[in-house]
Amino acid sequence: MPTSTASSTLSPLSRWWGPGLIMSALIGLLAATDLLLNGLLNHLPWWSIAATLIAPWTLPLFSLARRQWREAAIRAISLAVGMALGTTCLWLTYASLNQRTPPHPFPDSLQSVSASGTQIHEPLASNTATLTTEPQTKANQVASLQSKETTADFTVKRGLQGGMYSAEIHANPGEPGTLFFRAVEPSTNTPLTEDSTNPDRRISQSTRHAAQYSNHPSDRFASFVGFKMTDGIWGQFYACRFELWFTPDSGGPPRQLHAKVFKVEGWQR
Fold first, then answer.
1. Distance CA 194, CA 178 (A)
2. Distance (Å, rounded) from C-alpha 248 to C-alpha 210?
């Protein structure tokens, strides 16, 4: 006696609901990828997304090629139903997320700062090696370091997620002490990333480290720090003035070594 019926050996593709399930799963996969990877679909070519959604429609075409008219019709209807259900669930998910999205903390920041004539830098890729890769000549960098007022330079790099950044610092304060960053929104002078409930998330604390120094103004010593922008969420871009500060061990007041404005976005859990 046979141990299983013919129906139990059918694959999901052979069942009427199989193609629709595949279509719904593909739509769900695209949505999950977009949410987890911070708007990845916006950076993909349109044809790659279209190809992903068109591929399942080869199932009814395959049935037509074999002259299986009824199977082709069932698969086409199943795909249409799956696409409708998947699209509806996708719309409801995004609508729910949009309702919970907090308002942009500084919606006019980039426009206001740019209109004031302030240069807004784009963060570099995380694998950029040194400051000399920026559009600035080495002679200009050395000249700025030899200035009595400017003894440091830095750049900001993107991290693994939106809102996560690192800074590469080249500084020589000329005496022992501590380097750290402060962050300010330039158009309103609002302090940024200074979570009063969690000192470890304050940029002025998380970036604090001992400075290397020498008596030669042309020397610079590299250091690296990482931080998260806790104002706003993914996709909410605004201008941020990063200020590099130095507190001498001798007990003197903190002094600002350098400052630059960058376009940043908030970090989201």
1. 18
2. 10
pLDDT tens-digit profile of 10-33? Answer: 566 667 777 888 888 888 887 777
* Tokens describing residue 42: 């916006």
* Lookup result for tokens 């299986």: 68
Query: pTM, whole model, 2 decimals?
Result: 0.59
CATH of domain 109-265: 2.60.40.10
Q: What residue spans define the domains of the chain?
A: 7-100, 109-265
Sign for the pseudo-dihedral over CA of 197, 202, 205, 206: positive
* Structure tokens given for 32: 């999950």
Q: What are the distances in angstroms from CA 16 to CA 11, 66, 88, 153?
A: 11, 17, 20, 65
Distances from the Cα of 240 to the Cα of 109, 164, 183, 188, 249, angstroms: 9, 14, 6, 11, 28
